[in-house]
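Model it.
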Amino acid sequence: MQHVKVPQDRIGVLIGEGGSTLREIESRAEVRLDVDSENGSVAIDSVGDPVLGMVAPDVVRAVGRGFAPEDAMALLDDDMMMFELIDIDRHTRNKNDMRRQKGRLIGENGRTRELMEELTGAEVVIYGSTLGIIGKPEEVEAVRRAVEMILDGAPHGAVYSFLERKHNELTQGFNVRQND
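Modeled.
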């Protein structure tokens, strides 16, 4: 049995309308979830495939960190998918710095976060003091590197160039357009 802490304002999302999301996670991950709405603690008990059961805490953690349940459940669909959390707080000195860094990661009108998703294929969510990534290992690695560059103060232009290079590497050999 494992325990995952979910922020109070995300418990409703985890449970879903009439418990639908909770039941879907339970059936797809072959686990039993016991949610304590008071303190946000979720007990996860594997009742089926142990491999799926090992992924369930990440699914619950991802929903708790701001991902839509469908995006979090992608972790169950493909064993190459992974979930990673980056603690923005570790890279900041105070509340103002945290606000500034989050602003840089999100970008104007959400453009930086959007580009990270578009150019890597990963899902990226900024919630509280964390940035969450769901994707294949090389996608997660590219986003992690871009986030580190931004947190280290790199200009956005340099980060965008890096992401475009990564995008070209990631899509090399997978060009869908046929040259006739």
